[in-house]
Design a protein that fits this description.
The complex is a heterodimer of chains A (232) and B (243). Chain A is mainly alpha-helical. Chain A contains 2 helices and no strands. Chain A is rod-shaped. Chain A starts with 63 loop residues before the first helix and ends with a helix. Chain B contains 4 helices and 14 strands. Chain B has 243 residues and is α+β, with helices and mostly antiparallel strands. In chain B, strands 5-4-1-2-3-7-6-14 form an 8-stranded antiparallel sheet. Chain B has a 6-stranded antiparallel beta barrel with strand order 8-9-10-13-12-11. Classes of the chains: A mainly alpha (232), B alpha+beta (243). Chains A and B meet through helix 1 of A and strand 1 and strand 4 of B.
């Protein structure tokens, strides 16, 4: 019978569970390989599970160092990113400040232009009002002159009518005077002839008398025409 | 491995999202920030309402008529219907030996012929020169309450514009017009006969021909004027004082 070989086992706390390794292999980490308190198990009746086959690719174990390295890397990346971000934000901030200043300058320029335009507009309005006043005055004057011309035309037409009237009256008066003169002359001749009536042919005397009456009738007609004109 | 890839993808997404919320560089400031002018205002003469001398069409269309009769002179008003035709009242132009027409600005316009309507107190006068402006005739007669503007030469004086409203219609108190005539409260005087009565659009709605002691004016409505103008035979040469 072979000498029982002590089996160095690491007893885990708690009962053994199927699939739980009963021992650890040596590793590079001495602390990790530090054995727990070893005990000799002389009781061979204790069932020992068969050793599992050796796994050449054990699952990765995130160790503390790995975590530290990873955290360091992450921290470095964060610091670098933060620096880049800070630089970018500073650049953006400066650009926006410049942008704001340019807009302010533009607004100031436009404000000045607007003020000048408003001043020009007000000046133009004032000037326009002055022109309108002048236009209104000129229109009133044109209307007034047109009326004065029309009144003068009316007076001229009235004067022309008066002149025509006076011409007609004068003409009628002249006709009356001429007719009366002829009438009077005829009547004087007729009186003379009647004074020596026996020396004249009665027929010729009657004819002359009729001519004198016609002259006097013409005089009366001319006088009636004159009176008619005067009555107008 | 899958977790790592998923984490990397999530980190990339977070990184891109973070870049998206980062403030962007400002756009360049424009050199000129004036708004776009959609249309440039233009100065128009008011659609023919103004002449170069600033008189509006209402005044420019009015004419003064002097009736030089046989031993008397009278004046009336009128308005241009076409460039060489004007409208006035029959009683303004009849029994004349000569008609003399002048415009708002005092220019004399020679008269070539005059004709009067038989059934209304209307007359047409033809001129040798063009008249300054001619209004449009309204399509229909006005109704009670409509505004009226009368432009003419009351008392043979200055060109005057008066305003009023249409009071209603009545039969012609002078029996010189067939049908109804318009009654307004626009002030008129002797010499206003033949004046154009305009609506708010500047269109002719009637011709002034009479007034009464209450200060009301009577108009030959534009419908009658249109009817007369549509019948050339309705006009005869104006009678003269010489017979």
């Amino acid at each position: 019978m072979a000498t029982p070989t002590p089996i160095l086992a690491v007893v885990t706390e708690g009962p053994w569970q199927p699939g739980q390794p009963t021992h650890r292999h040596a590793s590079a980490d001495p602390e990790a390989d530090a054995p727990a308190t070893p005990v000799w198990l002389l009781d061979t009746t204790v069932p020992v599970p068969p050793p599992e086959p050796f796994d050449e690719n054990p699952p990765p174990v995130r160790t503390y160092r790995t975590a530290v390295v990873a955290l360091s890397v992450v921290l470095g990346l964060v610091l670098v990113g933060g620096g880049v971000l800070t630089g970018y934000l500073l650049r953006v901030n400066a650009a926006w400040q410049q942008h704001s200043q340019e807009w302010q300058a533009l607004a100031t320029q436009h404000g000045a232009d607007l003020a000048q335009a408003q001043f020009d507009l007000e000046s133009t309005r004032t000037e326009l009002q002055g022109v309108r006043d002048q236009l209104a005055t000129a229109q009133a004057r044109i209307t007034q002159l047109a009326d004065e011309k029309a009144q003068l035309g009316d007076e001229s037409a009235a004067q022309q009518q008066l002149t025509d009237y006076q011409q007609r009256v004068s003409h009628a008066a002249g006709q009356v005077a001429t007719a009366l003169s002829s009438c009077i002359d005829g009547q004087q001749q007729l009186i003379t002839l009647l004074g020596n009536q026996s020396a004249w042919d009665p027929a010729q005397l009657a004819t002359f008398k009729q001519q004198v009456n016609d002259y006097c009738a013409g005089a009366r007609a001319a006088n009636a025409s004159l009176q008619a004109e005067l009555a107008k | 491995m899958r977790l790592r890839h998923a984490g990397a993808a999530a980190g990339l997404v977070v990184l891109l999202a973070g870049c998206a919320v980062l403030p962007q560089m400002p756009p360049p400031v424009p050199t000129d920030a004036l708004p776009t002018v959609r249309s440039t205002p233009t100065i128009s003469p008011g659609g023919g309402q103004l002449s170069p001398d600033g008189f509006d069409a209402v005044r420019r269309m009015a004419v003064r008529i002097r009736n030089v009769g046989c031993g008397e002179i009278s004046t009336g008003s009128g308005f241009a219907l076409t460039p060489t035709t004007l409208v006035t009242n029959k009683h303004v132009v009849q029994d004349s030996s000569q008609l003399q027409v002048s415009t708002y600005d005092g220019h004399d316009v020679a008269v070539t012929a005059a004709s009067t309507a038989g059934l209304a107190d209307l007359a047409l006068v033809r001129t040798a020169q063009n008249l300054p402006s001619a209004p449009e005739l309204a399509a229909a007669d006005p109704v009670r309450g409509d505004p009226v503007t009368v432009v003419g030469y009351p008392l043979g004086g200055e060109l005057t514009v008066t305003n009023g409203h249409v009071i209603g219609t009545t039969t012609d108190p002078l029996n010189s017009n067939l049908g109804q005539v318009l009654v307004t409260d626009a002030k008129v005087e002797p010499g206003s006969s033949g004046s154009a009565a305009l609506n708010s659009d500047g269109k002719v709605i009637g011709v002034v021909y009479a007034k009464n002691d209450a200060g009301q004016s009577f108009l030959v409505p534009v419908s009658t004027l249109r009817a007369m103008l549509g019948d050339e035979s309705g006009f005869q040469p104006a009678p003269t004082c010489a017979g």
